[in-house]
From TrEMBL:
Bias (Low complexity) ranges: 14-25
Name this polypeptide is given: Iron-sulfur cluster carrier protein
Region of interest: Disordered: 1-35
InterPro entries membership: Mrp-like_CS, Mrp/NBP35_ATP-bd, P-loop_NTPase, YlxH/NBP35
Annotated organism of origin: Desulfovibrio litoralis DSM 11393
Length: 300
């Protein structure tokens, strides 16, 4: 296994078994039942977070991370206190989309501080613990489960209005751990309009039903193409599949996000498209999505 050298401010060691495993802030005094002790800490942490959102799909390449980052940034811009938890252990991309890949997390005996993007938005990701960003994480289920739980229990999230969690593709260990650890979490299911994506998303919805997960609604990403020249919409990869899925499944349709060159530019700059000064179709669509998510959460 490749060794992972921690960038936590209080740790000087190298751990090959877990992220920042030798850091004192990632250790808790043990008793006869350390899992129960960690559960108590997790419950205390979650009690200070009003709404927890789980952005998932079941399909890779549908833009979950982009949706996560722009939802969170839009909510933070509205004045809400927001945290992003990136549980894509093997392919974390949130720090890159926010331009904070060079920032590590600082730890103390009280816990670990998430990386601050601005005064209202903070981030935790495996990427922030890696000194070599090209290092592969060669972990199986138990280590991934332990890491996800530590990302909740050992991080000083404080009081948040929203915790937005970005997920990896599929319906594996990370997803099951999140649903079990955060029973009241609300899933935002992302799809693209094509049937190849919808087929996997239907499986993800079946997974959520089986696991008793709560679905806030469906987002159709890459819904048509916003022409950068004339502003008209081109049905490049068709559209409407996500909205139809939501209707047939009896779910709330939260909105459609078109393909927009502005999103690509923003990602390369490490700035959410909703925070670009220039207006764009994608920017307005993400702002509308954030508002619909806020309204849907408050309506529960």
């Amino acid at each position: 296994m490749n060794e992972i050298k921690s960038k936590c401010g209080s740790c000087k060691e190298t751990s090959g078994s877990s992220a920042c495993g030798t850091c004192s802030s990632m250790k808790k005094s043990s008793n006869d039942d350390p899992i129960s002790q960690q559960d108590a800490i997790i419950n205390q942490t979650l009690s200070k977070i009003k709404y927890k959102l789980f952005v998932m799909s079941g399909k890779g390449g549908v833009g979950k991370s982009s949706v996560t980052v722009n939802i969170a940034a839009a909510l933070a811009a509205k004045g809400y206190k927001v945290g992003i938890l990136d549980v894509d252990i093997h392919g974390p991309s949130v720090p890159g989309l926010l331009g904070i890949r060079d920032k590590g997390m600082e730890g103390s005996e009280e816990g670990i501080e998430p990386v601050a993007y601005n005064e209202n938005l903070s981030v935790v990701s495996m990427d922030s613990l890696l000194e070599n960003k090209d290092s592969a994480i060669l972990w199986r289920g138990p280590k991934k489960t332990a890491a996800v739980r530590q990302f909740i229990s050992d991080i000083k999230w404080g009081e948040l209005d929203f915790l937005v969690i970005d997920s990896p593709p599929g319906t594996g260990d990370e997803h099951m751990t999140i649903l079990k650890t955060i029973p009241d979490i609300l899933s935002v299911v992302v799809t693209t309009p094509q049937e190849v994506s919808l087929a996997d998303v239907r499986k993800a919805l079946n997974f959520l039903e089986t696991a008793h997960g709560k679905v806030l609604g469906v987002v159709e990403n890459m819904s048509g193409l916003a022409c950068p020249h004339c502003g008209k919409e081109i049905e490049l990869f068709k559209k409407g599949g996500g909205e139809l899925l939501a209707k047939t499944q009896g779910l709330n349709f939260l909105g459609a996000i078109p393909l927009d060159p502005a999103t690509v530019i923003a990602a390369d700059l490490g700035v959410p498209v909703v925070l670009l000064k220039e207006d764009s179709v994608a920017k307005q669509s993400f702002l509308n999505l954030a508002q619909k998510i806020t309204d849907a959460c408050k309506a529960l």
